Amino acid sequence: MLHARSLFEATATMPIIATFNGISVRMYFFDDRRHSTPHVHAEYAEFQAAVNILTGETLSGCLPPRQIRLLQKWIQLRTSDLLADWSLAVPQKALP
Predict the structure, then answer these.
(1) Which residues does 31 contact at the CB level (< 8 Å), separation at least 6?
(2) No. of helices (H) and no. of strands (E), the chain
(3) Could you tell me if 32 and 91 are in contact, meaning their C-beta atoms sit under 8 angstroms apart?
(4) What's the pLDDT tens digit per position in 29-71?
(5) pLDDT averaged over the chain?
(6) What are the distances in angstroms from CA 8 to CA 3, 12, 38, 87, 95?
């Protein structure tokens, strides 16, 4: 688990790419070490999860059932855009 300062530093380096229904979606720069598959990070209240862009599978953490379904549907509708963002974020290029 990250300490409060580490969590703040980590989220400060991740642009928020979307916010809807109380869910914030972020994408880390250089984030292919822990989860090598393309993924996004989502936060809802005190919950956090990393979710695979290609499959919608939760890689780590958890969200409440309703929020994970909303996030999975959101990802499904935007898969190609998210994959394009991922290809820029991993080598740390500016996201569109």
Answers:
(1) 39, 89, 90
(2) 3, 5
(3) no
(4) 666 566 578 999 999 999 999 999 999 999 999 999 999 999 9
(5) 83
(6) 9, 6, 22, 24, 21
Whether residue 76 contacts residue 56, with contact meaning beta carbons closer than 8 Å, is answered with yes
Q: Are 42 and 48 in contact (CB under 8 A)?
A: yes
Model-wide pTM > 0.85: no
Higher pLDDT, 51 or 3: 51
Question: Which token pair is 71?
Answer: 């996030």
Q: Which residues, at least 6 apart from 37, have a Cβ–Cβ distance to it below 8 Å?
A: 52, 53, 54, 59
Total count of residues recorded for the chain: 96
